[in-house]
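Human: I wish I could look at a protein chain and see how it folds. This is the protein in question:
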Amino acid sequence: MAFVKDMLRMWAHSWKRFISIAMITLLGVAVLTGIYAGCRDAFRSTDRFFDAQGLHDVQVLSTAGLSNGDIAALRKVNGVAKVQAERSQEVTFDLDGRKSATMQEIGTNGIDQPYLQEGRMPKKAGEIAVTRKFIRDSGKRIGSRLTVTPESASSDTSDTNDTNGADGTNETNGTDEAPSFPTKLTIVGVVLDPQNLSNPDGYSAMTSFRSTATTDYTFFAPSDGVTGTLYTSATLLVKGTAAESTFDESYENTVKQVTDRIDGTVKTDRQKARRQELLDAGNKKIVDARAEADKKFADAQSQIDANRQQFNQQVDQIVSMQAGAAAAGAATNGANAGAAAAAGATTPQLDETTRETMRETIIAASPELTQAKQQLDQAQSQLNEQKASIEQTLKTKENELKTSIPQVRWYVQDRQSLGGFSALKSDLDSIQSLGNAFPIVFLLVAVMMSLTAMARMVEEDRSLIGTYVGLGYGRLAVASRYLLFALLACLIGGGLGLIAGFLGIPAFLLVVLQGMYVMPGLRLEYDWLYGSLGIALFVVGVLAATIYACVQEMRQTPAALLRPKAPRAGSRILLERIRPVWNRMGFLGKVTARNIFRFKSRLIMTVGGVAGCTALIVCGLAINDTVADLGIKQYRDIYQYDLMVVSDDSDASAMRTKVASDGRVTSSLDVRIESGDLTVAGSGDGDSGKTGSSGSESIQLVAVPEKHLSDLGEMVTLQPVSSGILGTSGVGKTGSLKLDDDGVIVAQSAASALGVKAGSKVRLTNGDGVQATAKVSAVNRNLIGSDVYVSETYYAKLFDSKDAKNTKNSKSSEDSEALTWNAMLAKLSGSDTSQTDYAESLEEDNSVMKAVSCAHMADSFKFDLMGAVVALIVALAGGLALVVLFTLANTNVSERVREMATLKVLGFFDREVHHYVNREMMILTVMGVILGLPLGRLVGGMLTMALNMPSLYFEVEVKPLSYVIAAVATMAFALLVQLFVNPVLDRIDPISSLKSVE
């Protein structure tokens, strides 16, 4: 019992050490669990929401629309739980200018169901539900009316006939009609689109650089009132995915098995079947057109023949009359009157030559008959010409039919292709990667500080330990006094750390996340396994340090332990050998120098602890500086152009005319821009139409005209780069990179994510879904977006070559002779504000699909989520620095009580004693800061490069101000600790402290 009381008394006496260990453990466990828990809570809530709303696992799109045969074939794929055929239509309306929206039919099979936030779901024709973004932008409310206009562009498949599907099912013969929605609409509800969780009321606009939306808004309408038998897409749910987290690798593998099956057979068969349907429909059109033309020609010919017969009868009648009259005159002049009477009674018989001669004479003599004959001949000639022309046209159509109908292509996509989903996942993954790295530094610092504190604690009880061992107590029993002390401190600190880690930090992170995304049903959850392992990790580390300290003392005999520990032998330090410096130092300066370097363990612990804390602060500030400069570096330094304008292929000429007529452009470069994918060659099966798979990156493929390859360097800064652990390294000279016909130039953001470098082979997918293997000639410095530059000649070689995969899906030779330059990179005159306004005005033009101002992008680019996490990390690192400095200062004072008492006896005033002790701590702190600043740059570079996010590359940068902030903050903590240490020094009693310890 006395042993236990003495142990408790010892614990109470060492309450400062107890608080230090507890606080270090609290901070470490909070960092270890907090960021993880916040991301996990967000992952789980969104996964539950996706399951509740039936967010599709796979989406199938087709360039020719989907028919009932396609839907039936998808239902037969092994592993598919549900298939929902969807219809949509793009419409426009007037809302402070021309705006576009997608009319989306609400599915009846429970897939992609919008989440009702206000009002009710639409049920009748003409009723719609809109998103909160539309309500905010338009100022409309529930009950408001809206009139929309369908897009004029129509699908080339809107009037094709269905025939038997590839699966053998007979489909109704008829005309496939494109979807059509009511145009007079009434808003009855406000909903959240499960495919896009961006918060319009927060600061989600900062992720606009990753937006993949093709229209401004989405309107949800019921099936009532929707017409059309052609489906825009098909959405699928995969069996077993509801029980898995959509963010786990197991989910991706399950979905990939189904997409591989679709890509394997169904896709190819249905592409061929659908194209054959289009060919059959085209042939049927030609046959019907020929039959209709033949009928019209036959009717026209019958009319001409009837008119000619009537004309011939009239002429023959005149011929007969003239012949009879001539015969009667001849008989009258004869001698026989009877013969005359007989001749006048009958019509003379004329031979064919005579009759034809008389016909021509009669027609020539009569203007009316001549005109009638000319009209008949002209009508016959025109009819013959029309017949020949129509027949030639139909034969030409027959010959052109196969080349005019393009190959049908399917695009099989998973959730990664959804811009809102991939943005949320990448944001959370990046934050979680930081949460996995920082606790390591906290753990190392915790072990170092625990070793320092517990070693001093054991050393103070040296004689007591010898007494207990001499009385027969086992070494384990004696060591348990310190092990239980450290264990209790870890458990209390860890318990408080779990509260902060599973409640405080997640609440903070989720507030920031909810400013970016809408996550219904969000709640904080506790993970017993992770929380227990988090505490156990720090318990093991601290107990290991405590055991080491105990073993170091208890391996001596009780007699040795009962004697005071011999003072550390004096020795010369290196500074003493530098005579010019040493001789000019004062007495206290020499004592301070000897004290610093004589106690090497204290030197290492102090410098190491302070360096670690300073490095954490620098690391956090480095991430903040890196993210803050991304927009400026990309849109001011890398992109030299001021404006990018993109149009449809059919509007390309009108777009260029419009921009040229405005007179704002000082120089420009016409290019072709397509959305595609880049995959490391050999990393996948390479099937076209498959996106979001592992080892792929969405890119912007930029084709440059052959005659203007040298002009690309005037619009985009071309710099070859290589990457190192400190961020971007080996940046080549500006302008040293040239685009040629031997390969493509890949953006650094995509190359870093896929591990691509100059000379690598990659598989490119162009805007038509055609794939080809390309050589990477260079990697260009690029931070935002994933641009891939290719010359016109190399583009044609890649996607029109017989050796390229899926050549059967490539464009016809006529279409591929020349590319359509559907985009323009331009430099503008005027201020940044005027350039931004001009880009906005261009988007209102019908010929412009998208206009982007680099000035606007540079000013508006933000990444507030990363900023909030950095602020959290810096705050925790500052707290750790404060605890570390307090622990080290307290240990330093406890080790030197007799020394301080001696100074007081020698006549030192309290302020002089403060200066004597604090000067050593400040020098050690400065040394730690000097070591921690470059260490923080190194760690920041490694951590920042680990943040692989879609279309982003973090080029590490630490501003001088950040180094100053980190150094000043650490020194400020050191000064703050002095305020706690100085009263301890004042309370040292020289008489009791100088009593013999023997």
